[in-house]
Amino acid sequence: MWWSLISALALISVVRCQGVRETCLSGDEEPYLLFGTKTAYTFSHKGIPVMRSHEVPGCQPIAIWLLNRHGSHNPEADEISEMQRLSDFKANILANYRNGNFRNSNQRMCPSDVNLLERWEWNPRQNMTFAGDLTTDGYISTQQLAQAWRSKFPGLLTDNKYDYLFKYVNDQRSSTTFRAFTEGLFRDQAEGMDVPKESDEKLLRPYKFCPAWTRDVEENNETLTQLRTFSSKQEYKEMITNISLRLGFNYDINYETVLSMYEMCRYNKAWDNIQISPWCAVFTKEDLMRLEYAEDLETYYKYGYGTPMNQKLGCTAVKDMMDFFKIHLDHETPQQPKATIHFTEAEMILFTLTALGGYRDSAPITGDNFHTQTARDRKWGTSIMAPFNANIAAVLYKCIPNNNLKIREPYQVLFLTNERPLYIDGCNVGLCDWSLVKTRLGLVADNCELNFCNGAGKVNGFVGVLVAIIAFCFRLLY
After folding, report:
1. pLDDT at 331 (0 to 100)
2. Domain ranges of the chain
3. Residue 12 pLDDT
C-alpha cells in the first residue's frame, strides 16, 4: 500500500516538474462505450428509450419466438496468453513514466490514469479452467433480461412449463445462460421446473457444419480485404503511434499489443459497467471509434451482407420461426408451446439479422469510407446489433382489424432486436402483416437447403482454364 502511494506521488511530481500537458482520459464524463461484440447490453442503446411497441391496440400476442446471445464471459482460451502479457507490459509503461521516457510530452497520460493502471492486476481466475465461462455480471444480466421479457408478455411467458420449448448450443456457456434465463423467468420455482428443452447445433450454429462457408468465407483471405485496407491507412498507423507516445515508448508498439489492451478495456467495461478500466484510458474516443469500425468491417463481410453466402446460413433460424408460427395460425384455442426460446452466439445473431433483412445499408461499408457520411450513418454496427445479451424476438399477434385502423390483417408479427423495433422494409416500426412475412420470409424458409455447404470450392483462374482445355481435347478425341 505504501509503495503504491509513494509511486503515485513520484509520478505526479515528475509530471509537475516537467510542466507538460497531460491527456486525462479516465476522467472523461462522456466516455465512448461502444465496443463491438463485447459491448455491455446496457451501453448498446444508451439514451434510446425502450418503446412500448409490444402493446399493439386491438391485438393479442399468441406466440413469441426468441433468439438470445449469452451475457458477458471470461476471455476465450485463445485470448488468455496474449492478455496475460499485459502484466509485464504494464510494468514497462510505469517504468517509462518514472524515467521520463517520452518523445512527445504532450501525449502522456495524466497521473490519475497512470495510478489507475498501476493498481490493475491480472485476475488469476481468468485461466484456462474458466476460459469463456459466463461472468457474474453476465449471469445477472441474463436473469434481468428474462424478467424484462416476462413483464412485457405475461400471458405468453407463464409458470406453465408446457408453454415453453428451449433450444440451446451444447456447450458450458449456453447451458449456464439457459440456467440464468430460466431462473429469471421462474424465480423460486426454477430449480424444480423440468421445462422442455433440446440441443440443436445445426439450427443454432449452421456455420459449424458448412465446409463451403468455412473455406470460402471464414478462412478466405479475400473476406478481410476491406479490413486490411482500413488498417493500412496512414491514420490507422498514426493511431498506433499516438497510443505508443501516450504510454511513453520511443518506438511504435506492435498491433497485437494494441488489440490486447483493447480487449482488456472492453472486457473490463462489460464485467463492470461502472468501474473505470485503466486500459480504456489508453485510447481516445477517435481510437475507439476506429477499432469499432474495424470490427464492423470484419463482421459485415464474414457474417453480414458483404458476402452473399451469409444470407443463406441465416435461413435456419428464419425457418424455425416460420414453422413455429404456423402451428398458431387459424386456431380458436391457444396452442402450446407459446414460447420457443433459443440460446446461441453473436455470429448467429448477425446471420439471422442478415436473413431477416435488418440493418441493411444502401451501400456497403468499406475500408475507404470511414470519414464519409455513409459510414457515420451506417445501420450495420455490431455494438448495436450484437452486444452481450443480444436478442431477436418475433411476436405473433391475433388482431381484430376494426379496432385499429392501421391493422389490415388478423395476424401481425412484431420484430424486435434488443427489445427495440427492428425496422424491416414494408413494415410499420417493426410490425408486419402476416401476408408480407409469409411471402418474404416464407420464401427464405422454403428454400432453406444447406446443400451448398458441401459443394466444391471456387476454382481459381489457372485451374479453370486448364480444366476447359482438357475438356475441349476430350471432345476432339471422342
Report:
1. 85
2. 31-73+133-446
3. 41
What is the C-alpha to C-alpha distance for residues 279 and 341, in angstroms, rounded to an integer? Answer: 36
User: DSSP H helical segments within 303-368, as ranges?
Assistant: 309-313, 315-326, 346-356
Which one, of 138, 16, 12, lies nearest residue 70 by Cα? 138
- CB 411 within 8 Å of CB 402: no
Domain 31-73+133-446 sits in CATH 3.40.50.300:
no
Asked if 62 and 328 count as a contact pair (C-beta separation under 8 A), the reply is yes
Q: How far separated are the first and last CA of the chain, in Å rounded?
A: 89
Q: How confident is the model at residue 400 (pLDDT cuts 50, 70, 90)?
A: confident
pLDDT tens, position by position, 8-65: 444 443 344 344 456 688 878 899 999 999 999 999 988 777 778 888 999 999 999 9
Q: How far is 150 from 139, CA to CA, in rounded Å? A: 17
**Nearest Cα to 80, choosing from 137, 134, 129?**
129
Residue 1 has pLDDT above 60, yes or no: no
SS3 41: helix
Angle at which helix 234-246 crosses helix 255-271, to 10 degrees, equals 70
Burial of 194 from C-beta contacts in 10 A (0-12 / 13-18 / 19+): exposed
In Å, how far are 109, 173, 297 from 89, measured between CA atoms?
A: 15, 30, 29
CA 384 to chain centre: 8
Nearest Cα residue to 138 out of 38, 216, 218, 212: 38
